[in-house]
Amino acid sequence: MARVKYTDSDVALMARMMRAEAEGEGKQGMLMVGNVIVNRAKADCLDFVDVRTIPEVIYQVQGGNYSFEAVQKGNVFYNRARSVEKRLAKQTLDFWREHPSKYSLWYFNPYGECPPTWYGQPFAGPFKQHCFYEPQANTCESAYRW
């Protein structure tokens, strides 16, 4: 059973996002980005209340900007999703979860050391150039229930 409901167009959109955000970090990096997208659709807390679909997550606006840099800059639309990214997107939608993105709701590339917290949320771990952050359990219990 899939972790979230999705359509073929959701798979293609997520695949394009994963490629735009983490192509340089290989398949594992793209899987981690995909996992954060799915986690946001599953979490019912913080900035992710009433965000349940893949398009809602990807096109979410926070603080007047899109949540993901690839949408802000438009590079999510530069390339079509290839079959390899679609397979990776489907993996994260169906079952894939791994540390440090297992429970993470945020990631970013600081172009330096990963800070111990980001917007008050604890550091879960790095993967190549990205830093992943999980919510504090007392602020987002739903992120840890599934």
TrEMBL record:
Key words of the record: Hydrolase
One Gene Ontology term of the molecular function aspect: hydrolase activity
Cross-referenced InterPro entries: Cell_wall_hydrolase_SleB (IPR011105), SleB_dom1 (IPR042047)
Domain of life: Bacteria
Domain Cell wall hydrolase SleB: 24-133
UniProt protein name: Cell wall hydrolase
Organism expressing this protein natively: Ornithinibacillus caprae
